[in-house]
From TrEMBL:
Top-level taxon: Bacteria
Protein name (database record): 4,4'-diaponeurosporene oxygenase
Family as reported in the entry's similarity comment: Belongs to the carotenoid/retinoid oxidoreductase family. CrtP subfamily.
Reactions this protein catalyses: all-trans-4,4'-diaponeurosporene + 2 AH2 + 2 O2 = 4,4'-diaponeurosporenal + 2 A + 3 H2O
């Protein structure tokens, strides 16, 4: 039988996927008077971010570095509530510990004098140029925030105007991130520390545009935050607010098709039911949504040939390890860099294989908050950048050996005895693809390894089907937890605006 997605008035929206973008859209639309149903194929909201408990150890599997808290706060405040009544964040200082192959350590800090002191330990010249670089990073952030991150790009006049052209010229879209960094720094350590920001959008610092240097300002000066109870508490808080606003959640239910009539969306068909709607918002990978839920004949602007032309972002290989041991060298966030950073991205994007010597990022939330691990224990989320799914690498065959390789590497770096961990599991790009339908297991949608994929991403509004919208890392304004959250709000507001014009 056919069930309407809530039936109290004529403004009905179905949202596919309960990640940050979908939750943000749902809260905003419901606040504006819409009747909203979210359909999520996993058992719990959160998309790629899920709460995992292994024995007495608690983990967040997915995004763990939270920045730009004002983006999350605005979701709550626009709904008429205070974020702190639903979720609490705390500022991390230092932000992240960076450990380099030569043994040098730099703790990222808001204190510029402290940063210059640490950098000067290995490069006086880089330390002298730090202030100038951070000033440029701040300027890039301001330009991006005003022109790219705060508005949709769905009409020609949004993209093709004098103001936007001037902004593009100011952010130098054809200059690569590593090239910009080399104008200020010469030492490999500094280049790696700030080049890593390209991976925040699933890309290579040797190919991604220089605009991502803005993330140095975002982290060091705007802050990196922990979340009480773990990062998943953000999802829980947003879900609670959405339910209070009347949003209906259908979890463990999978959308099989987006239904249309005469090129206009009419609802969705799931593995359990059918739902009618005036608007459908797909909070998932735009490429997967088109391939899996829309017949090719109904999407001439995004046919299979065009989909294959996009380069997916990098993925990740995750190990969760709970061990009855403490590690003095770890902070809440710690990054261990390899000797040859560029080789990592050659392996990922050119050879499409797991890196021989990857950067290793560890989130140890138990450092900041008791109860995440037993007394005297550590809950370690270990992430290695990995290639998107392809025939070049078979994770089913390689995952156990690769996990053991990373554990041996961590032992060399001083994070020892993980082979004797109380609990351990791993999560591969193929698992990400299976659980979230991310296109080829990519974490951030499409890569930003060229200006076109960075600045002209697939539109938030379908070109072929009226009433079909997209939020998430593949579409504008791009990947990253706060940016995806912002996209959800912007799309909801644009939908509501169009209904009243």
């Amino acid at each position: 039988m056919e069930r309407e997605a809530l039936s109290l008035n004529n403004q009905k929206a179905v949202i596919i996927g309960a990640g940050f973008g979908g939750l943000s859209s749902a809260i905003r639309l419901a606040t504006l008077g819409w009747e909203v149903t979210i359909i999520e194929r996993q058992q719990h909201a959160g998309g790629k971010l899920q709460r995992i408990q292994l024995g007495d150890y608690h983990f967040d599997r997915g995004p763990s570095t939270i920045t730009m808290p004002h983006v999350f706060r605005e979701v709550f405040e626009l709904a008429g509530v205070q974020m702190e009544d639903y979720v609490k964040m705390y500022d991390l200082e230092p932000r992240t510990r960076n450990v380099f192959a030569d043994g040098t350590t730099v703790d990222l800090s808001s204190d510029r004098a402290f940063m210059k002191e640490q950098i000067a330990a290995y490069s006086g010249k880089d330390a002298q140029n730090y202030d100038a670089f951070m000033d440029e990073s701040k300027a890039l952030y301001r330009e991006a925030n005003q022109k790219f991150l705060g508005q949709l790009m769905i009409r020609p006049q949004d993209k093709y105007n004098v103001s936007m052209l001037k902004s593009l010229l100011r952010v130098r879209p054809v200059t690569k991130l590593n090239t910009l960094l080399q104008r200020y720094f010469t030492h490999p350590n500094t280049l790696q520390m700030f080049g890593r920001y390209a991976t925040y959008v699933g890309s290579s610092p040797y190919e991604a545009p220089s605009i991502f240097a803005m993330l140095a300002h975002v982290e060091a000066e705007l802050g990196v935050y922990g979340v009480e109870g773990g990062t998943y508490s953000l999802v829980s808080g947003m879900e609670k607010l959405a339910r209070e606003k009347g949003v209906i959640f259908r979890t463990g239910e999978e959308v099989k098709r987006i239904r249309t009539h005469r090129n206009k969306v009419t609802g969705v068909e799931t593995d359990r039911d059918e739902y009618t709607a005036d608007v459908v918002i797909a909070n998932g990978d735009v490429l997967s949504i088109h391939q899996l839920l829309i017949p090719e004949s109904e999407r001439p602007s995004m046919d299979n040939r065009k989909i294959e032309q996009y380069e997916p972002s990098l993925s990740g290989f995750v190990t969760l390890a709970g061990i009855q041991k403490k590690y003095d060298k770890l902070l809440h966030h710690t990054v261990f860099f390899p000797d040859n950073y560029q080789a990592e991205f050659t392996d990922i994007f050119n050879k499409k294989r797991a890196p021989e010597d990857p950067t290793l990022y560890l989130c140890y939330s138990g450092y900041s908050e008791q109860g995440m691990a037993p007394e005297g224990g550590s809950n370690l989320f270990i992430l290695a950048n990995a290639p998107y799914v392809s025939k070049e690498w078979n994770w089913e065959l390689e995952s156990s050996a690769y996990q053991n390789k990373l554990i041996r590497r961590l032992a060399e770096l001083g994070v020892t005895d993980l082979e004797r961990a109380d609990v351990m599991s791993h999560y591969t790009p193929e698992d990400i693809q299976r659980d979230t339908l991310a296109y080829r297991g990519s974490i951030y949608g499409i890569s930003s390894n060229n200006p076109k994929q960075t600045f002209t991403r697939p539109s938030n509004r379908s070109k072929d089907i009226e009433g079909l919208w997209f939020v998430g890392g593949t579409t504008h304004p791009g990947g990253g937890t706060p940016i995806v959250t912002r996209s959800g709000r912007l799309v909801a507001e644009e939908i509501a605006r169009q209904e009243h014009t």
